């Protein structure tokens, strides 16, 4: 059985018309009662200690994790607001075997996460144009080598980035959205007994060429590694026009910089973009849409798993080719 209790408090303090402070706190409490499924062979529990695991008997856990947010803001003009945000919170173990298991020590249920963000928001052209720019630095944990009772189940990460967002709507018929993000993340393995797990540390073509084993399951050296399968740059832009009779059209583009798919940084997915469109009709009772994806029929790929996923170790085993030009239609009825 599983139950949780999460009391939350938030308060906005307005010191002046220009200065304010937002405070928020939360306490996540988890109460877990677990036991082996009925019919579990006794031999499994008996042999578990030989693998460094506790016997499979009934167990319970009570976990309390705090969260805290502090965010002062300054509004020098009615159309401009600058802010700083600090966040601290604890999370449970991130793993393929679930978040609660007696095999893991207490530290895995109290993993510290920090976020520091500074930014400015603008409201211009008589509230028709909204701009936001921010930069941040974040630390936390992502799934790593998940072996019950083993030395490493998560690894610490550090991410720095910047974001730019814009929204422009001069009238009720037309609006334009734009977004750009720069993200640079690192896995911090330096000083740990093992480096990241590599199911296959080279491509299948290299294995065939040199007669190397496929999926040898080895560990890379314990160094700090930039995120694999993760772009540094991502952008999108969308323009929509809707006539008064309910007919409308949207055009948008997505773009992503290339990324390396493994810790050797020798195989790289190239940068890509897609152009897309939507033609729609909307009324009070129903909506019909025709989507046109990848209009220019670009050939592009995505990694099997991005940099924060446990499955990133499989990226040399597979990458995912994306669809060429394709069409999709939808109809929605509102009741």
Folded structure, characterized:
With 335 residues, the protein is mainly β. The protein contains two helices and 21 strands. It has helices at residues 42-47, 204-210; strands at residues 2-5, 8-14, 19-34, 59-77, 80-91, 111-124, 129-143, 154-168, 174-188, 197-198, 218-219, 224-226, 233-242, 247-256, 259-260, 268-269, 272-282, 286-293, 301-303, 319-321, 326-333. It has a 15-stranded antiparallel β-sheet that branches. Strands 10-11 form a two-stranded antiparallel ribbon. It is globular.
Average pLDDT number: 89
> Which consecutive residue ranges, at least 5 long each, have pLDDT under 50?
none
Number of DSSP helices? 2
Q: Give the distance, in angstroms, between the N- and C-terminal Cα atoms.
A: 38 Å
Task: Give a brief rundown of this model.
The protein is mostly beta strands and 335 residues long.
Give a topology summary.
Elements: E1 2-5, E2 8-14, E3 19-34, H1 42-47, E4 59-77, E5 80-91, E6 111-124, E7 129-143, E8 154-168, E9 174-188, E10 197-198, H2 204-210, E11 218-219, E12 224-226, E13 233-242, E14 247-256, E15 259-260, E16 268-269, E17 272-282, E18 286-293, E19 301-303, E20 319-321, E21 326-333
Antiparallel strand pairs: 1-3, 2-3, 3-4, 4-5, 5-6, 6-7, 7-8, 8-9, 9-12, 9-13, 10-11, 13-14, 14-17, 15-16, 17-18, 18-21, 19-20
Structural features:
mainly beta; 15-stranded antiparallel beta sheet; two-stranded antiparallel ribbon; 2 helices
